[in-house]
Amino acid sequence: MNTGNLFGQIPTQLPEELFQLLAVGQGARVERIVSKGHASPPGFWYDQPENEWVMVVRGEARLRFEKDDRVVHLAGGDYVNIEAHERHRVEWTREDIETVWLAVFYQESGE
Amino acid sequence: MNTGNLFGQIPTQLPEELFQLLAVGQGARVERIVSKGHASPPGFWYDQPENEWVMVVRGEARLRFEKDDRVVHLAGGDYVNIEAHERHRVEWTREDIETVWLAVFYQESGE
């Protein structure tokens, strides 16, 4: 058993988004992501082989989905379940405070 | 893609702990658990076939582990990674407010 805090050990400078593996198993991994004013590069879309369940635990962000050009605003406790190959990008995160995400990547049943 | 809020739709009465499936895939599932003064029955130990990464997002709780009789106190953002068959119980949760947990159950790599 090991322990930690999701808001702990955040560097004061975040030139890049911070991705940290918290747990990993067969077909699943749990990651902490910390953003501060970061967004996906222009024209970039995530197109992932796995499903992603992702929550903004603290802070604020906007995701854009290619399908229907839908924008989803996320603040404390808001989560999105993103299917594999559902193309999306991080449109915006707050610049004044850290946005802390919890992401669970997992394989679809029966894949 | 579907969305929700981890703190949404909590019943005003919680005679039992609330377990809700948020996402499920091959060898992994994400659950919300809501407790309010609940604890595991006397003498009861969870002895799970899967690993569990669990975080108290809001509220406060104590887990007890059989090994070394270790007690872990959890408050906002504190997480524990519990290995399969690591026997543990919920010793205490706050009675005055809801404790909202996020749990990810996953299989060990190579199992």
Describe this structure in words.
2 copies of one chain form a homodimer. By secondary structure, the first copy, chain A, is mostly beta strands. Chain A has one domain (18-106): Jelly Rolls (Sandwich). Chain A is 0% helix and 53% strand. Chain A has no helices and 9 strands. In chain A, the strands form 2 sheets. Chain A has a 5-stranded antiparallel β-sheet with strand order 2-3-9-4-7, with no helix packed on it. In chain A, strands 6-5-8 form a 3-stranded antiparallel β-sheet, with no helix packed on it. Chain A is globular. The model of chain A has no long low-confidence stretch (mean pLDDT 94). Chains A and B meet through strand 1, strand 2, strand 4, strand 7 and strand 9 of A and strand 1, strand 2, strand 4, strand 7 and strand 9 of B. Strand 1 of chain A pairs antiparallel with strand 7 (78-82) of chain B.
Give the SSE map.
2 copies of one chain form a homodimer.
Chain A: E1 2-5, E2 18-25, E3 28-35, E4 51-58, E5 60-65, E6 70-75, E7 78-82, E8 88-93, E9 99-106
Antiparallel strand pairs in A: 2-3, 3-9, 4-7, 4-9, 5-6, 5-8
In the CATH hierarchy, the architecture of chain A is: Sandwich
Oligomer: homodimer
Strand content of chain A: over 45%
Biggest sheet architecture of chain A? 5 strands, antiparallel
CATH homologous superfamily title of chain A: Jelly Rolls
- State the helical fraction of chain A: under 10%
Helix-and-strand structural type of chain A: mainly beta
What general outline of chain A do the C-alpha atoms trace? globular
Flag low-confidence runs of chain A.
none
Query: What's the gyration radius of chain A in Å?
Result: 14 Å
